[in-house]
Amino acid sequence: MIRKGIYLLLFVLAQIAFAHEEDVHTVQYNEETFPEEIVKKNHFVMFYAPWCGHCKRLAPIWEQLAEMLNEDEDSHVKIAKVDCTTDSSVCSDQDVTGYPTLKFFKAGESKGIKFRGTRDIPTLTSFINEQLGSPPSVDDEQITIPDAINGLIELTEDTFDKHVSSGSHFVKFYAPWCGHCQKLAPIWDELANSHSHDKSVSIAKIDCTQHRAVCSQFDIKGYPTLLWIEDGKKIDKYTGQRGHEDLKAYVSMMLGKNADRTEDKKDNADDTLYSVLTLTGETFDQSIKKGVTFVKFFAPWCGHCKRLAPTWEDLGKKFISNENVKIVKVDCTLESSKQLCNDQEVDGFPTLLLYRDGHKIFEYNGSRTFEDLYEFVMHHLQSHDEL
């Protein structure tokens, strides 16, 4: 009898250990770490018991949520959990009377707000969105762009998006160990200095070994890469000679093109209003019935979604005159779209799905550059035409 009890205990412990091995993204807190960490940042915490059936069913969903938010460097919330069978004092302090109990803790506060909705990704993310409010505007106010040194601005992940969000920018993406980058460095400094009093353009650089997220977003595959960016969007990649006069001539040319584009925008202002179609659960099925529809399922607080947004708008403009293609976005945090996102098996943000004549045919998981997204849509459009 005793031996059977020991075997049973070992089996339970093995199951618990196995379950924790699978949760590689969720942060596990205990009696010591919980009070220290919970006040440092916004947290969404699952209080659970390993033997609880509802907890086991929620575990993979909670892990998906953690993978989305804990791996996103722009995330404003951390996904965590506490085992109430081993750290009972934490659960007692938080008035946990059933499993699982889910609570949202705002930074600096030790008392949480209880979640009472359906335990699926769209509903959970909608709850997070409600608790966060609109943090990006607060962060934007706190972010300070560094002063230019002889005209050159050094950017980071924290300052990049805000700096390039408006105006014209010539940016060098580099790695310190790169020989070509080292040769270009004094020329780039000279270029920046020659434009130090020119308010129409900024010359900047970003170290891709330190700020990989930004470089990955712009699909940087070699060093140095020199991009012309306007209003947060990549306009052109410089591939010419890297002499000072060559670079100066390129800047002058691009500023001239920018003036032309500004006039075009004034003449075609209405085109930008409807380049991307916004749908909800109520309008989705009817709107995608005909042709090819490329849909971005997103959450407003998602960092990757915010970076993709200007590219998605450009994609919409590219197909605005094509009656067979619709570029669409769906906000999964809206009450009217939560069930739709759940039905479409959206388990991360952004999720990009392609539909043909109302039927889902492909999930896009490739690079999110404009060129690759455009080629993806054209491939499916042309393959359909050939049938």
Automatic annotation (TrEMBL):
Membrane-crossing segments per the record: none
Signal sequence extent: 1-19
A GO CC term attached to the entry: endoplasmic reticulum
Alphabetical GO biological process terms: protein folding
Classification via PROSITE patterns: THIOREDOXIN_1, THIOREDOXIN_2
UniProt keyword annotation of Cell cycle present: no
Keyword Repeat: yes
One MF term in the entry's GO annotations: protein disulfide isomerase activity
UniProt xrefs under InterPro entries: PDI (IPR051063), PDI_thioredoxin-like_dom (IPR005788), Thioredoxin-like_sf (IPR036249), Thioredoxin_CS (IPR017937), Thioredoxin_domain (IPR013766)
Keywords carried by this UniProt record: Redox-active center, Repeat, Signal
Ranges where the Thioredoxin domain occurs: 9-133, 134-251, 253-382
One Pfam family named in its UniProt record: Thioredoxin
Similarity section: Belongs to the protein disulfide isomerase family.
Name assigned to this protein: Thioredoxin domain-containing protein 5 homolog
UniProt organism field: Cephus cinctus (Wheat stem sawfly)
